[in-house]
Design goal:
- It is built from six helices and three strands, in the order αβααββααα.
- By secondary structure, the protein is mainly alpha-helical.
- Helix 2 crosses helix 3.
- The longest helix is centred in the last third of the chain and has 18 residues.
- The protein is elongated and about 55 Å long.
- The two termini are 25 Å apart.
Amino acid sequence: MNQQRPKPTTAELEILSILWEHGPATVRAIHEILSQGKETGYTTTLKILQKMADKGLVTRDESRRSHIYHAAIQAEQTQRQLIDDLVRQAFGGATEKLVMQALSLRKVPPAEIESLRKLLDQLEEKSE
């Protein structure tokens, strides 16, 4: 496996989620979206982005007056890393326990159940 980047903090994940959903953006644009959900200062957003660039979580395009930040990691890659850590740390490596907990948290729509069945069928075919 590739060298893993540091695990993003909760605040960093919020910013990465914005970049994954909206694409590359300036600090101001990221800050405006963050501010819709909670009170946060512009300089706080800037400092978090600077730390994220140092950690390799984002890249910064400095060719314009307003720097543009890009996610340096993919959502799926980050989700896999976080889930793997969660399964190992909270569920003793038992994926089944994680899935059972996740499914018991809320009512699961029929379309999601069908997708899960298809995934389980595919996994079963691979293991035969």
